[in-house]
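Subject: SDR family oxidoreductase

B.,
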Amino acid sequence: MEFQGKRAVVMGGSRGIGRSIALAFARAGASVAICARGAGALEETRAEIAAHGVKAFAAPCDLADEGAIARFVPEAAQALGGIDVLVNNASGFGRADDEASWAISLAVDVMAVVRASHAAEPWLMEAAGHAPLAASIVNIASISALRATKRNPPYAAVKAAVMQYTTSQARILAAKGIRANCIAPGSIEFPGGTWEKRRQDDPALYQATLSQIPFGRMGRPEEVAEAALFLASPRASWITGQSLVVDGGQLLGA
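Prediction pasted inline below.
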């Protein structure tokens, strides 16, 4: 129970990678707060978290809304008794090179990271005061940030911004005893997710992507969650400002 007594807040934690991260922290002994837009999935995941015998808090939050983030983070901190770990996971999944896709991508993928991090900072500082280098931020980006793309330029660009911002966060927050790191997942498949839909709707793209992965399968959300636990744990106490690629070698075949 590596996170016994710790408090983790997962922004965008009701499904997919976020859900797996939230459940991984709960299994490791942490109390967990999650938010997302859909109340139904939120409550299901909150119940799964609580089943591990830890505090579980969930509330709807539109991460494109500055005010909603400003309300949720203090509520989560109050419910858990503080914040030791913040995970910024949500994405607007902007794909087309148009105004609407850029707007949602910048609002959710970039500004939600900035706003949630700022909102959580007082509690992270408090946690760091009790255990220096134990408080941390983990941002979720994508390997799309590391290569050119024709399919989703806004998504790739904002994930690159998240990776760069993580380095600045790490530099700024080091003086306050807080670490900041980033994970860049490859193609991750889960029920209801993008790659399950692509497997059904665009099998040629699915197979082309699969052919890039040396192990011959898509990644699983749980594999990203394990990386998040490592970066937030004392085992990574001397790691900050880094982006960890979790892609099963997908970039090697790109």
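The beta strands are 7-11, 31-36, 56-60, 85-88, 135-140, 178-185, 243-246.

T.
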